[in-house]
């Protein structure tokens, strides 16, 4: 289990935390939490403001393949795969790999990239419909913190169960009071957020032995 930033080649997004806080209402939060069209492709105040493929995962995919020394026929699962952008890039980079994705959003699965749509399932991270030890790598980016903590623990155990050993999750977290303040201003959908050391305690409690990184509002 280690803290490692495998997303360092992602483009930096500048965020205006005060503007988000001023705009956020309980109605906007409720709409975002449905993970429907508004969250992905509606106005920015509801979520992504247009969730379109732009190839941004390509360097991350290359890094993951190298870091975990994945075989060319690796089985890879993305928990919270959205429209399957990252899995599409895995398939392009390693055509012999086998990909699978789950997402609680029917909208995202329905509007997923054609290249990977047959491999995606509309289900929650809490019950992954796969055998024990069946994936060479399980990834979950900014997803399971959308569950309340007890359900999140179940999801982490599921990730641990279906992985052969390598997994990588990223979660909403802070390292100081300023980052905590910014995160609370920014989040729309997260149910569980905590300081990095508290996440590490939780990982040990549930027996999660994979790698991890953070979504930090700095
Ligand atoms: C911030 S988006 C991240 C999507 C993708 N991983 C990425 O980084 O582009 C969060 C995703 O988690 C999905 N999600 C939320 N709760 C979930 C759950 N319980 N199980 C599976 N997916 C979930 C949402 O539908 C959404 O696609």
Helix/strand layout:
Blueprint lengths: L16 H7 L2 H7 L4 H5 L16 H10 L7 E5 L5 H9 L4 E5 L3 H5 L9 E2 L15 E5 L7 H14 L4 E8 L2 H10 L7 E2 H11 L4 E6 L2
Parallel strand pairs: 1-2, 1-4, 2-3, 4-5, 5-6, 5-7
Helix pairs in contact: 1-8
What would you say this structure looks like, in words?
The model has no long low-confidence stretch (mean pLDDT 97). Strands 1, 2, 3, 4, 5, 6 and 7 form a 7-stranded parallel β-sheet that branches. 37% of the residues are buried. α1 (17-23) packs across α8. This protein has a single domain, classed as Vaccinia Virus protein VP39 (Rossmann fold, 3-Layer(aba) Sandwich). The protein starts with 16 loop residues before the first helix and ends with a strand. The chain has 218 residues and is α/β, with parallel strands linked by helices. It contains 9 helices and 7 strands, in the order ααααβαβαββαβαβαβ. The structure holds S-adenosylmethionine. S-adenosylmethionine binds at residues 35, 80, 82, 102-105, 108, 124-125, 141-143, 146-147.
Question: How far is the first residue's CA from the last residue's CA?
Answer: 24 Å
Mean pLDDT across all residues, rounded? 97
Report the biggest beta sheet as strand number plus sense, adding barrel if it closes.
7 strands, parallel
Poorly predicted runs of 5 or more residues:
none
CATH architecture: 3-Layer(aba) Sandwich
């Amino acid at each position: 289990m280690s803290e490692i930033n495998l997303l360092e080649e992602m483009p930096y997004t500048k965020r205006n935390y005060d503007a988000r806080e001023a705009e956020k209402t309980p109605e906007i939060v409720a709409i975002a939490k449905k993970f429907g069209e508004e969250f992905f492709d509606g106005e920015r105040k509801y979520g992504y403001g247009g969730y379109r493929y732009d190839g941004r995962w390509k360097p991350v995919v290359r890094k993951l393949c190298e870091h975990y020394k994945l075989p060319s026929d690796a089985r890879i699962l993305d928990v919270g795969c959205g429209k399957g952008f990252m899995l599409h890039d895995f398939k392009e980079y390693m055509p012999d790999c086998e990909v699978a994705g789950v997402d609680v959003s029917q909208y995202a699965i329905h509007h997923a990239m054609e290249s990977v749509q047959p491999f995606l399932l509309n289900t929650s991270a809490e019950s992954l419909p796969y055998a024990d030890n069946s994936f060479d790598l399980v990834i979950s980016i900014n997803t399971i913190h959308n569950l309340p903590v007890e359900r999140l623990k179940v999801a982490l155990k599921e990730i641990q169960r279906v992985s052969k050993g390598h997994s990588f999750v990223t979660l909403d977290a802070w390292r100081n009071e300023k980052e905590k303040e910014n995160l609370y201003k920014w989040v729309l959908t997260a149910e569980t957020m905590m300081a990095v050391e508290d996440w590490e305690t939780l990982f040990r409690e549930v027996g999660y032995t994979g790698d991890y990184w953070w979504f930090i509002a700095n």
